[in-house]
Amino acid sequence: MPRNYLLIAAAVLLLTVWNATGFYQGDEHFQVLEFAAHKVGFVAGADLPWEFAEQMRPALQPFLAYVVYQALTVFGEVNPFFMAGLLRLFSAVLYLGVAVALYRRYAPTFSDATNRKWLALALLFSWCNVFAGVRFASESWSGAMFVFGLLAYPLPPVLDKFALSRVSGNGGKSSALWAGVLFGLSFEFRYQMALAVVGFVAWLLFVGKPNWKYLGLLIVGGLTVVGVGTLIDRWFYNEWVFAPWNYLAQNLIEGKAAGFGTKPWYGYIEYIFERGIPPLSLVYLAATGWFCWRYRKDPITWSFLFFFVAHSALSRKDIRFMFPMLPFLSVALVVSLRDLKEKYGTELFDSGWPKRGLVLAIVINVALLVSVCVRSMNDNTHAMRYVYDNYSEPVTLFADGRHVFSLSHLVIRFYQRRGGVIIIEDENRNWSACETSMCLYSERTNTPDPPPGGTLVYTNEIAFLGDFDPFGLVSRQPFWYVYELKRKEYDGPAN
């Protein structure tokens, strides 16, 4: 991996870690940080999502967050925003490790130095890789563990032209055992990764002609981690529980997963086309399809297809469920590029529409990468931080709708000071119900309706856009507003 590429990638990741505050999807926060906060002791079980009561989520990732929290207490009160940033930093380092590991395995398969450079660039600077790579989410960490596991296993030499991995993996028995541990970690971060592991084992059985001792050690390593994961679940739920079975029972047998939205079997193709940003997404789909056909005897293909087909068969779909497979997309892209050059000549991309298409794809990727680097995930994160930073004493937060600590029907507790925010939802704006000496009111709207006597102390509205509003776009955009209410402005007595 070129050192200058790594240095630039490190700078890009640091910028993204700094700016990408909040969370991409609710599970990333509520099933990890809120779970950890519950174990620390300042979030009640009743305030957690329904999955907690059903004891169906793995506790490994909340356990890691809990350990980080306890380590930070050595330095005093833990700032939750700093801790979340630190976890994103750990995720970014893990992503960088995945990119380097994949490059070291597959760069030798390219005889052309130019293709090796393209592989490094795709692994390090693909916008979707960076987007998912900095998230302290189960999708990112499970995908990383799976990649490491696949690369660690001592692959048998497969000389078939339909396999990309034609050289034997390094190591012996210890590598096979270590691969099992990594696959087990992948499963414990996200249970659905069992599908990819099954795909890999199926490849070993039907294509790779496995060394049975190695396969046995792989299984032993995986089951050992599952056993340790069960102990961590026992610690977290305070009783013996087999969370993977509960997850399966609730989502498939009881059908609760379908209650969060369904899509037809081709839903992921639609998702990739839409969320991958056309026309770039067309390149993703074409490269993936080509790789799976051309290298149909490669372990990547088998793992991906088992994972993809099983997810497509389920009615519940979400594009983030595909994130664990993202690291392999870069390999598929560059391999497809190489194959096109080999078939049509290296001058294919020197002129005409192929060159213009390649330039357009690069420009779109760079534009999306810049967006990923500079924007936060949630528009209320900075509002929550303002409350945390500016009110060390308890405050009462009024709202007659959505407030800054809300997400759907849940309340974000992790980013509050312990006992520091009392939330009262009151459409009648009965300020006399205030229980503290300082009261706040928050709303997210495009038509601010400040309370009488309220002082605006925070908004994420960009002031200079007020005079530049083409087609009324700014006026239709909702922003957050936080108002400070002084006790002298109403008659409610302080407690």
Question: In brief, what are we looking at here?
Answer:
With 495 residues, the chain is an alpha/beta fold. 55% of the residues lie in helices and 7% in strands.
Walk me through this protein's architecture:
The chain has 495 residues and is an alpha/beta fold. The chain folds into two domains: 3-374, no CATH class; 381-489, no CATH class. 55% of the residues lie in helices and 7% in strands. The protein has 19 helices and seven strands. The protein has helices at 3-19, 26-30, 33-40, 50-54, 60-72, 80-106, 113-125, 127-133, 138-152, 173-189, 194-208, 212-237, 243-253, 267-275, 280-294, 299-313, 326-344, 352-374, 381-390, and strands at 395-399, 406-407, 410-411, 421-425, 439-445, 455-459, 479-485. Strands 4-1-5-7-6 form a five-stranded mixed β-sheet, with no helix packed on it. A two-stranded antiparallel sheet has the order 2-3. A hairpin with a 2-residue loop joins strand 2 (406-407) and strand 3 (410-411). Helix 7 packs antiparallel against helix 17, helix 9 (138-152) runs antiparallel to helix 10 (173-189) and helix 14 (267-275) packs across helix 15 (280-294). The radius of gyration is 25 Å and the shape is globular. The model is unreliable at 488-495 (pLDDT under 50). Pfam families: Glyco_transf_22. Keywords: Endoplasmic reticulum, Glycosyltransferase, Membrane, Transferase, Transmembrane, Transmembrane helix. This is Phosphatidylinositol glycan class B.
